[in-house]
Amino acid sequence: MDWKQTLKNKLQNSNKPKRSEQELKDEEMDLFTKYYLEWRGGRKGKSSSYQNIPRFYYRLPAEDEILLQKLREESRAVFLQRKSRELLDNEELQNLWFLLDKHQTPPVTAEEAMINYEHFLKVGDKAGSKCKQFFTAKVFAKLLHNDTYGRISIMQFFNYVMRKVWLHQTRIGLSLYDVAGQGYLRESDLENYILELIPTLPQLDGLEKSFYSFYVCTAVRKFFFFLDPLRTGKIKIQDILACSFLDDLLELRDEELSKESQESNWFSAPSALRVYGQYLNLDKDHNGMLSKEELSRYGTGTLTNVFLDRVFQECLTYDGEMDYKTYLDFVLALENRKEPAALQYIFKLLDMENKGYLNVFSLNYFFRAIQEQMKIHGQEAVSFQDVKDEIFDMVKPKNPFKITLQDLINSSQGDTVTSILIDLNGFWTYENREVLVANDIESTADLEDT
Q1: What is the pLDDT of residue 319?
Q2: What are the chain's domains?
Q3: DSSP for 285-338?
Q4: What pairing do the DSSP bridges indicate for beta strands 114-115 and 234-236?
Q5: Rg, the chain, Cα only
Q6: pTM of the predicted structure, to 2 decimals
């Protein structure tokens, strides 16, 4: 085509009426839709793997979505029932024990019945589908120790199975109280669980029903004090199962539990009554709350005023007085000073400036109150410099001028250090430790002579 024809065509096109702005926009949208659909279809053709990605987020029903909430609760209940039916019942456990005993691997010794891997697999085939998960090479290897014939203890294996079944039963039982269905219990959820557990614990038969609410509060506080250090108001069910508190609580099913075990068990009736009785004894004005003056008589009555001031500054109070729940946290901290959660509680009180560490000023501030108490009791005051050096020697902090919470925990001397700073009796015990040890040795020798 020559240039003349090209110019003629251009002039002809220029004479066509121009399209409106709306027509141009419509054409643009049509083209966009066309190319987008082509691109989307082409992408599907290239790879369909994205279609296999499972859904990982499910929105929780809102408060006003009653039907969805009920549906979710029912589906969870059905799911937990199904999981419960998958567990071994008493009859199946008894049958498993008979099979294990029948397939003992010689040589038979008087000490313990043993079984090798070949017989172990035979028992697994006969025990039924519910037991398959326990009869694996991994489980056998876990329980294999130093047996010459490559066998494992039948009793150890059976105890392993029993423990697994118990953990799953307990997990399901706790999950029934997990209203949110998110794998954790709120304070009210755990309170309901323990309240309904009380009738199943023979060791709590003697408790008056009027005391149930105080008992539940006492029991729940231990879980939350140690398992919810950030005070979120909820605890993971996994954490409850992993700690020993549930074992201690369910130990109360034993009708023949010794007196010593009851006294050392926080969840026992004598322990709960002891703690609540102390609270009532401290409450001189019988208003159900404790003032700073009333709390000062706690224990041996030798906690310093400076420390008590910090307790009432940092802890939750009502018109300057402490309720039973706050008192329980206080008791748990002072009775378990070796535990990280207790040290965290006390450290927060000692860290007046909220710097995350204790320096010489902090130590001096608290120890000065100990020195004043010593003068009141006619004791010779001890030099702060000596005590400060001893504290830093015990803790050995990373920074030679600052003691962090982690330093206290790592040193395994946190209970001693905190006692020196907050309690005259604790400081006196530390100062006279050598004399006390000598007296203990003499007392032991006298008992042996008699």
Answers
A1: 92
A2: 67-174 (1.10.238), 180-282 (1.10.238.220), 302-450 (1.10.238.10)
A3: T-SSSB-HHHHTTSTTS-B-HHHHHHHHHHS--BTTBB-HHHHHHHHHHHHTTT
A4: unpaired
A5: 35
A6: 0.80
